[in-house]
Specification:
Chain A is of the alpha/beta class. Chain A is 33% helix and 25% strand. Chain A folds into three domains: 233 residues, 3-Layer(aba) Sandwich (Rossmann fold), CATH 3.40.50; 176 residues, Rossmann fold (3-Layer(aba) Sandwich), CATH 3.40.50; 73 residues, no CATH class. Chain A has a six-stranded mixed β-sheet with strand order 6-9-10-3-11-12, with helices on both faces. The radius of gyration of chain B is 20 Å and the shape is globular. The chains are: A alpha/beta (503), B mainly alpha (327). Chain A: It is a peripheral membrane protein. Chain A: GO terms for molecular function: ATP binding; ATP hydrolysis activity.
Chain lengths: 503, 327
């Protein structure tokens, strides 16, 4: 098969941010009618490469050729007009306007300067039909799910005579059916000869949809491969640059724990979680497994005092306590690392060091500043321990990748030396390498005597880390399973599905 | 869910706030009609228009600004400044109205343009910029004169006192016609032009609007210019109504205008609302005044109390609605 001429060629791209070399001599080729996956860990430079391509950041070095002509875009709008459209993870549309308007805003069909609403709806309908999507185009966008909004964003993107469509992590908040719907749309566009650049952390999806892939590591090009010729293991190895350590169970045998740290008896809150009893011992990792919305986060919020318990009692270190506020929980040295790192109070313009000491400073009060040497010591220790990259505590947090920002949040809590660390989906949306590091860290912390409540949607991860697994279903704690040889993901799945009734 | 069903009729959710305000107006009118003799006549409604034509025009400008998610606190002061400039130019040098009125409109638009430009270019909160504009315009009134200046220009007073007879014994003033024309033009612009849709898009999500390639900067500057123009026109209509220019005219009118827009169902966060709602909002405010004057024994400050209570109720009503829209 003859390889068609690439529609887009980026060669020798370099980009420098203050303190970070984000891209160094990176090449990327997109062929018409292919789905091309851009792979790499967090911080490998994927987002930066896309931003350079779409004109958000100017490139410091290298050239971009679109259909044989050298181009340089000053803004995303210029890139769009040249035929490079981007759909981001967070959909950039106006939820208050109708679907039709969102597709055609700025290009509305007009008659004598007056917007022709009827033709506009017809045109929107037609564009969606091209993607095999049928919607009420006069309804406001906000009534539709994120997945549908993404389809609308794609419909808008391809209407502008797009030759290149960039999909930046479009699937991270979609469920399986929605992902399939998105893939149908992608295949259709591919048949029309559009080159699609696809970014995703889900390896299965990459193998399902993509034709070729380009792998980046630490801002450098690793290589370009046809998807069919690279196994998943090889891919991961290339992404993290080493043979992936065998991801076995980190806690081989079930240890015995005899010093209960947190004991909940009949703790519950109506409408959020049915009364449950749970004991977390010192040095124990307790996994919470269950589907989204099964009450995992609600358990964590009760134990952190973010919600008031309606019933039951709680004892910490043997003494009965009621946690009225998160502050009260913090005085008992309970830390809660929530799932939204963006809203969790990372201050993007402050440096890594300043962000890390924020919580420590807050517990001391503003009249007793943390001495600079203590700060540097602590921060240096955690930057090293968590392998925050780049290892420079004086650069603004916003220059860090998502996974590294997550580590900064983690460091902020660890610096308080909590006795119980609650981690809500700490590894969501971050790549394999960073995931393994965070898991390793959790294991080390618990060996050091810290209790960890670990919440994750990934059963393998829960199994690998936990000493015991609490299974939740429909806002009820249905089973407590010791993590021994007999516990497998199949057993867990079975328990979740049956609601713990079998045993 | 895009529609609520009442029996067989179905109303899209987006029209719900306007519908609530409309029902409130009708209910108030019916209640007044039952309670007071001579209340239930067409002229009472028309009088509400006549007495509030200037507020209606100012509220139209405010609607544009609030739809983009901004606010314009300068409108009351610009109204006062417009009456002052109009009165002083006609009384002092004796300039004819057809020179003075366009000049006043130009000055008002210019003030709005400058405020919009500052808000946009320096990325400053509209609240603070228009607050500065408010003090500036109010202060300028007193550099022209500290006392009320009567308007005696023959053409001007003749136009102001014209009665346009409708059928039966009903009549309106020319100001009402002007105000309704403004409403019609504004509604057309908001619904049928790209500028109008950019206003909604900017209010819905400014960042997205920018990424979608809309002229956000131009749109924002334009809405403040529109608001400035409407304030100046409101000032001209107020001069017709008062036949004087005075630095203490229209004190607090910016807040009346904001109240009317909010009662009309437009969200202060921007992006949602209709001009028809604003018209109904002004009518509700006017009708409260009418009812209190019919009551006779009540102090006019009761108007403020009722407006306050209504605002509380409407903000609470909008709460679940705005939650859904902003998600």
């Amino acid at each position: 098969m003859a390889v068609p001429a690439p529609v887009l060629t980026m060669s020798g791209i370099g980009k420098q941010f203050p303190g970070v070399k984000a891209l160094d001599d990176v090449d990327l080729r997109l062929l018409p009618g292919e789905v091309h996956a851009l792979m790499g860990e967090n911080g490998a430079g994927k987002s930066t490469l896309i931003k350079v391509l779409t004109g958000v950041h100017p490139a410091d070095a290298g050239t971009i050729e679109l259909a044989g002509r050298t181009v340089a875009f000053g803004s995303p709008l210029e890139a769009q007009q040249a035929g490079i459209s981007t759909v981001y993870q967070e959909v950039n549309l106006c939820p208050n306007l109708s679907v039709a308007e969102n597709i055609l805003l700025g290009r509305e069909p007009r008659r004598l300067g007056r917007i022709d609403w009827r033709r506009m709806r017809a045109r929107a309908h037609q564009l969606l039909a091209r993607l095999d999507v049928r919607l009420d185009v006069s309804a406001p966008l906000s009534v539709y799910s994120l997945a549908v909004q993404q389809m609308v964003a794609i419909a808008r993107a391809v209407d502008i005579d797009a030759r290149v469509l960039i999909l930046d992590e479009p699937t991270s908040s979609l469920d399986a059916d929605e992902v399939q719907q998105l893939f149908r749309v992608m295949r259709r566009l591919k048949e029309e000869g559009i080159a699609i650049l696809f970014v995703s952390h889900f390896l299965d999806q990459i193998y399902e949809i993509s034709d070729r892939m380009t792998i980046l590591r630490n801002g450098r090009l690793v290589g370009e491969y046809p998807t069919s010729e690279l196994s998943q293991v090889e891919l991961v190895a290339k992404m993290i640059g080493q043979e992936l350590a065998a991801l076995e169970r980190l806690h081989g045998e079930a240890k015995t724990f005899d010093r209960p740290l947190v004991e909940a008896r009949g703790l519950g809150r109506s409408g959020a979680i049915e009364p449950f009893s749970l004991t977390i011992h010192e040095g124990e990792v307790v996994g919470l497994a269950g589907l989204l919305g099964s009450g995992r986060t609600e358990v964590a919020r009760l134990l952190f005092g973010a919600d008031h318990a309606g019933s039951g009692e709680l004892a910490i270190g043997g003494a009965p306590t009621s946690l009225r506020t998160p502050r009260a929980a913090m005085t008992h040295r309970i830390a809660f690392c929530s799932e939204n790192r963006k809203e969790d109070g990372l201050v993007p313009d402050l440096t890594v060091r300043e962000n890390i000491v924020l919580a420590l400073q807050a517990t001391r009060g503003w009249t007793r500043p943390v001495p600079r040497e203590t700060q540097d010591d602590l921060v240096g220790k955690y930057v090293k321990a968590l392998r925050i990259s780049p290892p420079n505590p004086e650069i603004p947090v916003r220059n860090l990748s998502g996974g590294n920002q997550q580590k900064v949040v983690l460091a902020r809590w660890l610096i308080l030396e909590p006795r119980l660390l609650i981690l809500d989906e700490p590894t969501r949306g971050i790549d394999v390498g960073a995931k393994a590091e965070i898991q390793r860290l959790v294991a080390e912390l618990s060996d050091g005597g810290m209790a960890v409540l670990f919440i994750s949607a990934e059963l393998e991860e829960v199994l690998r880390l936990s000493h015991k697994v609490e299974v939740l279903r429909d806002r009820r704690l249905v089973a407590e399973l010791p993590n021994d040889e007999s516990l497998t993901t199949d057993v867990l799945l079975e328990t979740i599905a049956s609601g713990g009734r079998v045993s | 869910m895009t529609a609520l069903t009442f029996g067989r009729a179905s109303v899209p959710v987006k029209y719900l706030p306007v519908l609530v305000t409309g029902c409130l107006f009708v209910a108030m009118f019916v209640a007044g009609g039952i309670r007071y003799e001579g209340f239930a006549s067409g002229q009472v409604v028309l009088n509400v228009f006549i007495d509030n034509a200037f507020l209606l025009v100012v509220a139209v400008g405010m609607t544009f600004v609030i739809l983009t998610g901004g606010i314009d606190l300068s409108v009351g002061s610009v109204v006062a400044l417009s009456t002052m400039i109009a009165a002083s130019l006609m009384e002092g040098p004796g300039w004819p109205p057809y020179v003075v009125v366009p000049l006043v409109l130009l000055i008002g638009s210019g003030l709005g343009l400058v405020m919009g430009w500052i808000i946009q270019s320096f990325d400053i909160q509209p609240f603070i910029v228009t607050l500065a504009g408010m003090f500036l315009a109010r202060g300028l009134c007193y550099t022209i004169g500290t006392d009320s200046i009567p308007i005696r220009d023959a053409t001007f007073t003749a136009f102001a006192q014209t009665r346009i007879d409708l059928f039966a014994d009903l009549w309106v003033s020319p100001s009402v016609v002007i105000a309704l024309v403004v409403v019609a033009v504004a509604a057309y612009v908001l619904h049928y032009t790209r500028f109008g849709r950019s206003v909604y898009a900017t209010g819905g999500n400014e960042q997205s609007a920018l990424l979608m390639g809309l002229p956000v900067a131009r749109t924002k500057i334009t809405v403040y210019t529109v608001s400035g123009f409407c304030s100046a026109l409101g000032g001209v209509l107020l001069s017709f109504y008062m036949l004087s220019g005075y630095g203490l005219h229209a004190v607090g009118m910016e807040l009346d205008a904001i109240a009317a827009v909010v009662i009309g169902g437009t969200l202060l966060t921007g992006g949602t609302g209709f001009l028809l709602g604003t018209v109904l909002g002004v009518l509700v405010l006017g009708l409260i005044q009418t009812i209190i004057s019919f009551e006779g024994t009540l102090n006019s400050w009761w108007t403020k109390i009722f407006i306050g209570l209504l605002l509380f109720v409407f903000i609470l009503l909008q709460r679940p609605f705005s939650g859904r829209v902003r998600r």
